[in-house]
Design goal:
Strand order of the largest sheet: 1-2-3-4-5-6-7-8
Shape: globular
Number of strands: 8
Largest sheet: 8 strands, parallel, barrel
Structural class: alpha/beta
Radius of gyration: 17 Å
Bound molecules: 1,3-dihydroxyacetonephosphate
Helix content: 40-55%
Number of helices: 11
Strand content: 5-15%
């Protein structure tokens, strides 16, 4: 896969004014680049206003979560139908912050993934081990479990709308523990292998796997140039248009290099 996909996860950041400014800056920056796919995922309250700014641009809109029901008595929740209505193409599910801070289980995440895909959304499904799990040599076991349980009972026709993000919990949020490009490549290979066993080699080859965990302009090229790293899911650096766009440009360079050497 040569076209990289760079996604900004704004998490619980920005005011409406900041969201507007940031989205505009990304759109302007993207008008000068080609051969890379980009999406941004603002907080729920700003989806509509950011969606207006992204209309007609090359930047897609994504959400950071959803509730797996069409509608009903679910106070405070947001349905896939609402996200589609607002122009969302993507939704992030299984993020470690929701797994660990909000207690989301593999079973619940699986329900969300299936409902989101059935509704027509593209799902960015996040997996990743904690530092304790890595140090105990359990990375593969944890990734396998998250994939097997989180992607259980998926309909084969929806697989093309599934993206996986490898986000080691210990490397998220500038913790000082950055994953090395080698560690990232190895984890992506584990994920692709497991996915292949679940859904077949063809689906595994076509699968896009992003890396997320303190991706910055300074390490983007080293990460994106690794075999099997198809893009990046960016937290902190996506809140600064200049940094986000620098990572997007690293994605283009890598895509071109791969094409030239092919
Ligand atoms: P950081 O880029 O801030 O480490 O966040 C990564 C992440 O969790 C993206 O979903």
């Amino acid at each position: 896969m040569s076209r990289k996909f760079i996604i900004g996860n704004w998490k619980m950041h920005t005011t409406s004014a900041e969201a507007r400014q940031l989205a505009k800056a990304v759109v302007v920056g993207m008008s000068r680049v080609a051969r890379v796919s980009v999406a941004i995922c603002p907080p729920f309250p700003y989806l509509a206003l950011v969606g207006e700014i992204l209309k007609g641009s090359r930047v897609a809109l994504g959400a950071q979560n959803l509730y797996p029901e069409k509608e009903g008595a679910f106070t405070g929740e947001v349905s896939p139908t609402m996200l589609l209505d607002l122009g969302c193409k993507y939704v992030i599910l299984g993020h470690s912050e929701r797994r660990h801070k909000l207690g989301e289980s593999d079973t619940f995440i699986n329900h969300k993934v299936r409902v989101a895909l059935a509704a027509g959304l593209n799902v960015i499904f996040c997996v990743g081990e904690t530092l304790v799990q890595r140090n105990a040599g359990r990375t593969k076991t944890v990734l396998d479990r998250q994939l097997v349980q989180g992607l259980a009972h998926l309909s084969a026709v929806t697989l093309t709308r599934l993206i996986i993000a490898y986000e080691p919990v210990w490397a998220i949020g500038s913790t000082g523990h950055d994953a090395t490009p080698q560690q990232v490549q190895e984890a992506h290979a584990i994920i692709r292998h497991r996915f292949g066993r679940m859904f077949g080699t063809k689906s595994a080859e076509a699968l896009s796997i992003q890396y997320g965990g303190s991706v910055k302009p300074k390490n983007a090229t080293a990460l994106l140039s690794r075999l099997g790293v198809d893009g990046a899911l960016i937290g902190g650096a996506s809140l600064h248009a200049s940094q986000f766009l620098a990572i997007v440009r690293a994605g283009i360079n890598e895509a071109q290099t791969e094409e030239e050497s092919a």
